[in-house]
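Summary for the steering committee. The consortium agreed at its last meeting that each partner would contribute one worked example illustrating the joint modelling workflow. Our contribution is presented below. We chose a case with several input lines so that the handling of multiple components could be demonstrated. No manual editing was applied between input and output; the record is shown as generated.
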Amino acid sequence: MLQIINIRENKEDVLKRLSIKNFKDAETIINDILELDNIRKITQKKGDDIKAESNSCSKQIGDLMKSGKKLEADALKIKTADLKITEKLIDDQLNQIELKLNNLLVTVPNTPNLNVPAGKVPEDNEVILEHGEKPTLYSNAKPHWELTSKYDIIDFELGVKLTGSGFPVYKGKGARLQRALINFFLDRATSNGYNEVQPPILVNEESGYGTGQLPDKEGQMYHASIDNLYLIPTAEVPITNIYRDVILKETDLPIKNCGYTPCFRREAGSYGKDVRGLNRLHQFDKVEIVQITHPNQSYKILEDMLDYVASLLKELGLPFRILKLCGGDMSFSSALTYDLEVWSAAQSKWLEVSSVSNFETFQTNRLKCRYKDANGKSQLAHSLNGSALALPRIVAALLENNQSQEGIKIPDVLIPYCGFNIID
RNA sequence: GGAGAAAUGGCAGAGCGGUCUAAUGCGGCAGUCUUGAAAACUGUUGUGGGUUAUACCACCGGGGGUUCGAAUCCCUCUUUCUCCGCCA
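What follows is the complete predicted structure of the assembly.
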């Protein structure tokens, strides 16, 4: 959520940035927000004044009662009763205004960084780096969903029987490969200074709201309605919410956390080729990195995180490219996002395996995650996160790119984790 | 799941209807003293709204109520602790 003070003081800049994101009716909504904010201030002042008056009356009544002047006290009580009625009226007004204001504020996306390319569709994203050789496959090479059944390592039909489509069962070397990747990613993250956490994978409404999944995007999450809890779509939700309502010391920054969790996404409305095999699942595994930083460090740290994620792909030997997302393709909460995509040789397409974003104060404003600056003032911190990495598409690319007549070769870095060097 | 107790500032802990603008202690910060540090002493020390700045307003787990007035009384929810039951 944007800070109202920022909208108030830098309206033109906010509008300019929102136009990069193709946010419709920006000017109308921003004007409505400013007007409501104004009304809010006036209304609150009115209410505060009346409260001040009735507070002082109450004090007087107390004094009068003590000195036995009951009649005078009663007279004052009648006056206070009138004040109470007005007070209640204004409080109700104020609540409605604040509700309206908040409802408007949550519809406004984050203001992008000025380096974000304009554009509306994924084709407008800027390729900033392409790394590695795309492998040439032998003539009867297969897409990963055929390899998984050929080697009996991932069973999609069995998942349908147990749960439904999009919930595969990993078996044998397939299961071991999952575990290997998780451990590999966590080991790399912790040796890069990230603190490992293992959060709950069910979260409450407040947490969903804190990172921006709620309100609005509840359709993307599975909901355990009896207890009103949500299955997390990403570890970002619990790990970032650790810092909800927290005031940090400036010297604590940056905070670096990582965590492995399963992730659950309803993906309502997805269909067709994109959901084939491992391309899009309802449940998948991911290691996430999250940082809470000082505002003037966050863009430097975003680059560090990007380099870190790229280093993982290099170690795995997967050809990849890095995209700087255009305004139209960025997420609602992000100020700047890089996507990393690996080349999936048999499908002949790029698969997104990581998204690294700086949210600036968009999340921390909702979370009320602040630090004390040198003057002892509370300031909103910046939050960032990135996938490092999401497993299924990594597995898809590994299977497809590394296949040969003999079987699927395991990258060297994973062999100690897998305990085997080929799937055959 | 059942019964009981509790929730107060960074922490501990008093307050149980009107100077609560929340005692006191510890911790933090600044100063005095010291070559420096410790100790001692002095001062300071929550969040948000609002103001040029003061005033002023809200917040004692969350929500609601009683009252002229609520940290304090009532209802409700949540969480924690103790006991019982169940259980990996």
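Residues 40-41, 44-45, 47-49, 51-52, 54-55, 57-63, 65-66, 73-74, 76-81, 83-84, 247, 368, 376, 378 of chain A lie near RNA strand B (CB under 10 Å from a C1'). The mean pLDDT of chain A is 90.
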